[in-house]
Structure formats: structure tokens, C-alpha cells
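Archive transcription. Copying these from loose printouts into the bound notebook so they stop getting lost. Printout 1 of 2:
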Amino acid sequence: MLIEDIVKASDISEETGAEMIIISPETTLLDITRVLSRNHVGLALVLDETEKLVGVVSERDIIIAIAKNGTQSLLTPAGEVMTRDVKTCSPRDNPKNVINTMSEGRFRHLPVLDEGRLAGLVSSSDILKYLSDKMTPEEQFQIWAKSFWV
């Protein structure tokens, strides 16, 4: 089992035709909040003009900006508040390693890059759902026991 299997099975991937929220660094936080709210998601991927991933804007990033600068920060462009040091994964990564990265970093989403190109987005919920759908309870326990208690 690989991340690409989970991305293909999830609702957020190019393969399934579901939309990832992709914005430019110039998109304002107000516009981002509207898109996130409308799509019931918590993360927008920031791509530059060459379609390279340059950052992400999460609900947390928006809350921090508002806490620091008040509601006027809603007019701030994404490029000023986005998380730039974005952890990513590969379609060929092991989900166990990916969920550990998410747990250690305290985030719920990882962009999936295939040879530097955005190939999807995987969430901790995607991984958990896939595991619960595809594995027996005993297999699930073995994976989680190895991941979290060893």
C-alpha cells in the first residue's frame, strides 16, 4: 500500500477529478476564507506562475494573522502569511511514514509531489479511512501499534 493508492481513493486528487484549492500568492485571506468555507476544507495550496508549490495557507495561518493584526489582515495576500517550508510526500511513500510525519509536525494535510509536480493532497483522514476500508481490524492494529508504540 502506497500514498498513491490513498490519493486515488480519496475525494481530493487529480485522479478523481475533485478539486484541490489552489491559489496564487496574491490571493487575499478574505478570498481564501470564502473558498475554504464554500468547499468545506481547511487548506489552500499556493502555486506560483510556473505551477510550482511555494506554500500553503491553512485555517491556522489565517487565525494567527487575524490574532496579530486584526480583521484588516483579511486584505493581506497569501504570500505574506503562507507557510513556506511545506512538508510534502511522494506517491510512492508508505502511509505509515506519512502519518508519522503529520503527527510529528502537528498538521493534517500533505501535498503529494511527483517529480516536483503537484499530484494530489492527502489528509490524515484519507489515510485512516483507507486503512479502515481496506484492512482487517487486526491488520490496522498491527500498523498503528508499530507506528505509535515502537
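Printout 2 of 2:
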Amino acid sequence: MSPFLLNLLLALLWTFTWGSFDIYTLTAGFVLGYLLLGLYSRVMQVHGGYGSRVFNLLSFFMYFIRILITANIQIAIEVLTPTHYQRPRIVRYNVEGLSEAQVTVLANTISLTPGTLAMDISKDRRFLYVHCMYAADREAAVRALDELRDRLTREVF
């Protein structure tokens, strides 16, 4: 059984123990189950236990929200001002060493961010072609994509 499902089961057991099935009791049970599973993974010395995995996912989520807010502000400034700051470029980005699932998630996170779009992948599956609206400096665009890829592989996969 996956740790997340076990956490949900512990939360349901907690609500049944208290005899009231409401969002507050379920949330308290989920938090308590999370803490118990995190403690169990530390005591049993499970590397990359449930607690750290959820923390890593939350860390990536906060990072991605920050990127989304920054990109949305940049696009809003572009729309609201008469000056055009965009310097579009298509970047050929190396995705060697990533699994198909990792490339798919990377391409989707790139496309979800305003101002960037994952356009295509090469036939040999080595390169992802990304359209960037603000890429006057190719190296800076590649560094931003590298940071996204590294955080994805480290915190999600």
C-alpha cells in the first residue's frame, strides 16, 4: 500500500474514532497520520521517507507558484504598457537522461508557465524545442530551464 493511501486510511480511522465525520476531524487525522508515517520512516531508517517526499513536493509546488506569479506579472506588464520587451527565441533544450515521464512533466510545466511553450521533441528524443517570449540571452533561458529540470528530478521524481 502506498504511504499516501495509508495516510488517508489513518485519517479515516481517526474520524471514526471521534465519531464525527467533518473536514476538521479528517484534516486533523490526516496531519496526525502524516506525522506518524514520517516518524515511522525515520525510526525504520527508510531513505526518502513519506515525510520528506511530501515536503519535497510542497517545496516544488511553492517554487512553481513563484515562477507562475513572476511570469504572469511579466505578461501583464507586456500587455498593459505600449513598450514591447519581448525577445522571442526557440531554444533547443537537451533532455538526455530523463525518462519519458520526466520529459512529459517537464514539457507540461514549461507550457503551463505563461511566456513559454514546449513545442516539439526531436525524433531521437534528445532535445525538447521550447519557445520563450523573453529570451534575449539564450544562456539565461537555458539556466532557467536547467533549474526547473533539476528541481523536478530532485523533488518530484
